[in-house]
Known about the structure:
This protein is an all-beta fold. It is about 0% helix and about 50% strand. It has strands at about 15, 20-30, 35-40, 45, 55-60, 60-65, 70, 75-80, 85-90, 95-100. Strands 2, 3, 5, 6, 7 and 8 form a 6-stranded antiparallel sheet that branches. A 4-stranded mixed sheet has the order 4-1-9-10, with no helix packed on it. A hairpin with a 2-residue loop joins β6 and β7.
Amino acid sequence: MGNRGTSGYAPVQIFNSTSYNAFGTVEYASIFCSDDNYRVARNSTWTASSRGICLVTRITAVVQTPSGNIQAEPYNSSGTSFSQFAIIQVGENRFQVTRVVSARRRK
């Protein structure tokens, strides 16, 4: 999905698959990389404006439900170059940020 520039990794994309708006932070490994704060509407995708050579270490999300703001289980990594993530609902008032894995079949 995301295009990789001539130098660096593809910009982070977060798909909000829930029925509610959400916001959070994408945290990067290096002190030379600025964290990204994001807001994403329900059933929509947020894309970072740039990324460079920054590895993702954590993505948080707060889902805005009729029951109040619910903190999703964050995505954590020692540092990943992956760029596609999603906010998913895993139970009643339970949400999680996860990496999107291709569903392509092997031949």
